[in-house]
Give the backbone structure.
Amino acid sequence: MAAKIISGKAVAQEIREEIKKEVEKLKEKYNVTPGLVTVLVGEDPASQVYVGQKEKTSKNLGFYSERHDLPATTSEEELLSLIGKLNKDPKIHGILVQLPLPKHINETNVLYAIDPKKDVDGFHPVNVGKLMIGEPDYLPCTPAGIQELLIRSGTQIEGAEVVVVGRSNIVGKPIANMLLQKAPGANATVTVCHTRTRDIKFHTKRADILIVAAGRPKAVTADMVKEGVVVIDVGVNRLETGLCGDVDFEAVKEKAAAITPVPGGVGPMTITMLMKNTLKAAKLLNGIRE
Ligand SMILES: NC(=O)c1ccc[n+]([C@@H]2O[C@H](COP(=O)([O-])OP(=O)(O)OC[C@H]3O[C@@H](n4cnc5c(N)ncnc54)[C@H](OP(=O)(O)O)[C@@H]3O)[C@@H](O)[C@H]2O)c1
């Protein structure tokens, strides 16, 4: 039987409606408007598209939105000085510096300069550490989107054998960490695979939930999965024929119980979770506990 398609687009829309209602309530009850600032250095076309989408979504949700587009020649010092000002600006609750930065700027210095309370990307070591010990303020956006997709699609996570392919700091490692926490929507048994894994198929075939973030088109084929698996395909690969995930969707969907498409799967969830983090930041910074 063909798999149920888990629509990230539909789930993202559902969550955006929830955020909109909360934003209205925050404005009415506390006179607080969540504020998100995006900082883009240089003119990378893909980054311009991503920043544009973030700006548009935040405006649609009723956020205060600010955008700083800086020339590629901006020095690290100038960028750090801007971040210092944004850290102190009470209208701003979330600071998003679009990556990658030009080569002459040290990305780590910049990410570490963001006030952890305004780090809505969840990349600051303070937030990474809090996630690790099970007390997160901000979950990194793509892993948070993956977990929401699993929860809202009714997937049994507790006790499941989860296999993650990929160990990057922005997807593989944090999602593995999140799903093994002793917490609701987690409590899984997690295995992480990477390019040095001896026999990837041995692991992927055991998975009840398979999360693939390898950045390799169709790296996971039908012979690598078991019947009834739930597959989350994080990969976004731009081929001449269009966008394609890391999973051979057409073949794997014949064996899977459920699967995310590319596009329309994890992608729309990432921006939505950024908005959710910004809403949370507005509450945390204003001492609002609801
Ligand atoms: N939809 C979204 O919102 C979203 C967000 C973020 C990323 N993405 C996409 O997700 C994919 C992964 O992103 P990323 O930033 O995590 O990538 P990354 O930093 O390039 O990491 C890829 C990871 O996959 C592992 N890997 C690569 N090929 C493999 C293979 N054949 N078998 C097993 N492991 C393999 C690598 O292993 P080693 O560590 O051994 O090198 C590495 O750990 C990309 O396509 C990216 O565009 C999508």
Q: What stands out?
A: DSSP finds ten helices and eleven strands in the chain. The chain has two domains: 31-116, 141-266. The longest strand covers residues 35-41.
